[in-house]
Amino acid sequence: MAKEVCCSTQLIDGEGNFNVDGLEKFMKSVKLAECGLSYAVVSIMGPQSSGKSTLLNNLFYTNFREMDAFKGRSQTTQGIWLAEATGIDPCTLVMDLEGTDGRERGEDDTTFEKQSALFALAVSDIVLINMWCHDIGREQAANKPLLKTVFQVMMRLFSPRKTTLLFVIRDKTKTPLEVLEPVLREDIQKIWDSVPKPPMHKETPLSEFFNVQVTALSSYEEKEEQFREQVAQLRQRFFNSIAPGGLAGDRRAVVPASGFPFSTQQIWKIIKENKDLDLPAHKVMVATVRCEEIANEKIAKLKSDEGWQELEETVQSVPVPSFGKKLSSILDKYDMEAAYFDEGVRTAKRQHLESKSLDLVFPAYQAMLGHLRSKALNMFKDELDQGLKNGEAFAMAVRNCTKASLAEFDQRCADATVSQATWDSSKTREKLRRDIDAHASSVRAEKLTEITTNFEKRLSEALAEPVASLLDAASKDTWPSIRKLLNRETEAAISDFSSAISGFEIDEKTASRMIQNLKDYARGVVEKKSREEAGQVLIRMKERFSSVFSQDAESMPRVWTGKEDIRAITKDARSKSMKLLAVMSALRLEEKTDKIESILSSALLDGGDASGAIQERSISATVTPLASSTWDEVDPSDTLITPVQCRSLWRQFKTETEYTVGQAIAAQEANKRSSTFLPPPWAIVALIVLGFNEFMTLLRNPLYLGVLFVLFLLIKALWVQLDIPGIFQHGVVSGILQLSTKFLPTVMGLLKRLADEGSKAGASANSAFSSPARENGSLKQVPLQDFSSESSSQGSSSTSGLTSSSSVRHRQGGQVDMDTA
Predict the structure, then answer these.
(1) In a 10 Å sphere around its CB, with 0-12 CB exposed, 13-18 middle and 19+ buried, how is residue 269 labelled?
(2) Any stretches that span the bilayer, and where are they (predicted)?
(3) Is the pLDDT of residue 16 over 70?
(4) Is 499 within any annotated ligand binding site?
């Protein structure tokens, strides 16, 4: 498997200078701050040129500089180098220390060696002690003097960290590890026993401070392949090294990864400033570390306390009675127990523990306050609803319910107070007050909206239909009546509305605005209804015209007998329709005068019945006053129908009513014709004078008289069969077209029927001529029966005046023919 690129930096140079910038860059590169406590520090120390860097590079895939054997044995690593182990979880930092006993520093200059060793033991979780196999059992070998000094200083300065000391025996011989390990452990125990100890650690075993382990490796130069296999096996022991049972599973007082740079810098600073390693001034630091451990233990126990866990779980869902007393008794069990440490540190750490404990339980306290706030708010809502149902004034009910709810909240908060804390519930109380105000405002707005809606509905019902009825009447009193209706209903509604909202104690400005809105709404109802009616003005005008034109003063249908003045009636009907148009042309909710009716009258009625050039001049004269989109003395917002629209509507109105007038004229003419049986006297005299010769001819030859009589009967039959008046009542052109299609079939049918009747009358022509009276009777009978049936059909199906008069004429004609025959 390909190895990942290793990141490394020199932490401390050969002169003892700490590389702050390099460590910061290293931290960012490996993202150490994200690891939290999940990281381990491994360091190695041992004699110079003992293969420390080589071992680390093979063990952790680092890139520390190694000694070139072909150039001789000399110092390779100067100071302390730091790298990240590649491919090992958790994140493992590896420190390569400068070798001891180097000739470059000389025999007397061992200060840096001791300082770096002490630094490694203070910072590392695992320390590899690299030693030669043949040095085991030798007094001055295997770093024994260095270990003795380190043990003594570590015990005096630092609380036990349980650092793992992994002794790596290099160039292992044939002697089994089972034989070498007891000897090495015995030497280490002797060093520990010989170190002077303070009273508190007189009987403390080595295992309390260090976890000693031993391993052996073959020679790298002679048995490289076997060496690599053994290193690979050793590498597996560093996976999950900080887990329980791992190499560093018993470590203590771990510094969070984000604080690693500062911690190492301060430790090195303290060690560097005390070259003789006599550091009694760090009593405070020891106390700080130990008290921090105690505080963390207390917090951990508090978190796992069954009483606290039950209380925390319960308070998340429901309020807990006597919450403050229960929580105070739990906190009392976890006070700081650190009587043997520095008093100042102990006091500070006790306060810190108390602060952390309170921080831990504060969410539960907040949850309790949340329950109390919700309970008080629900109490307010219920009591307010009940008060309003009982008819209590809204503002008074809100004040009483608010006072009761806040008093209940204060009482409950006193029961939830924790004696160790000075927590203030004022913010929650303020939030409760805001929630109460918000709910009250919401209910207030809802109630006011409901009241306003009811009054608007009342105004709509009181104004809409009456306004429509008044506009439909369209007289000079229409708009005064509408104004009177509007004022009456609005004043009554405002009076009742003011009484309805008095219990809300609304400020005068808001009340005035609401009353004005109600007035505007009432006006809007009238305006909306007026615009709706104005949109149907053409229909209303035609209805008004039809009512006036087709009914007399007693509201009875007119019968056009020929005595009526159709022109005057038409003018009166149009005048009244024009007045309706004038009424609906503009809103007149203010008592202002306008000239709309006079303008429309002069423009639309004067000269309106003229024809030809006179009518053209009249139209051109009306263009000017109606060629505008606004009325004089009328606000554009009050305009319902513009002058231009009035002209267009009037043209359409006249076009659609001309047919009714034409029908009346036709009916009147038909009635006149049907009521006149004889021509004028002068015509009778003319006929006698001018037709004397023809009359004498007829007397001399009666055959002509029979022929004329037969022709008369045929023409009368065709007149009835074709319904000539009905065909031409819709126009001359359409009548001619219908007559052209019906004429030939009707003549053929009539002749066929005459032929059938003739064949039934007699078998021979002689017998027919011998009985002229019977023959004439049969000739009369056939067409007259048809005429009477047709006349009856026409009379029953016709509803208009013109059709009725035609039917009368048909019947009269038929009767005349029969009498004549």
Answers:
(1) exposed
(2) 703-722
(3) yes
(4) no
